[in-house]
Structures are given as C-alpha cells and as structure tokens.
Amino acid sequence: MGLTHVTAEVANPFDLKRKKTLTFLVDSGAVYTVIPAAQLKALGIASTGQRTFFLANGQPVKRRTGEARIKLNSESATCVVLFGEKGDSTLLGVTTLENLGLIFDPIRQKLMSLPMLIADVRRYFR
Question: Residue 39 CB: number of other CB atoms within 10 A?
C-alpha cells in the first residue's frame, strides 16, 4: 500500500479571504488534522485549547488546538485542527474527512463519498 496525498484549502473560519492551499497526507488512523503552527498563525488562526496525545511508543505529547475551514473538492467544513510542531506531518485526519462527507478507501487508496444515513426514530416513540 502506498501513501495518499491530497491538496486542500485551509482558511480562517472568521475571515475566509485568508486562505492557503496545502498538501496533506491522508491518515485514516489520525483523529484530527494536523497543520503546521506557522501556517495557522499566518492565516490568523488562534489556538483555543490544548490536548494530550500519545505517540506509538506511549510517550505523551501536547498539541495546541484551533479551528480552521477546510475545503476539499466542492465540500468545506470548519474543523478542529492541531497546531503541528517541528517533526509533525501535515495530516488530514478522520474527523475532517467525516465533516466533509468523505471516507478513505484503503484498498483503492482514494477518498470516496461517505454514505449518509438518517434513522427514523419516530416509530420507536409512538
């Protein structure tokens, strides 16, 4: 299996004119999208929090979080992103993919539309 990269637009959700196109490694094992902190700062995106994550070796690392508008193909969504630090890859994580209505097909190595289902719960509350 190879690596899949995509190009997406990242924008400040409060000023959509401040945007930049970046190349991301699609990582269906990553929960959040990681964008270099310098790129987010250049777009005027501020950190709104911090979370602890664990590396494969069990070592905890802290990363700042914020929100960015991600546009891929014709879909866009405001998503929680991590402020990447030196050594971090620029990753497109699964929550961003789901927000965009996409899923990664590891066999075909491409993004596909996520089947959207809505359950009719009215029959359970009659």
Answer: 17
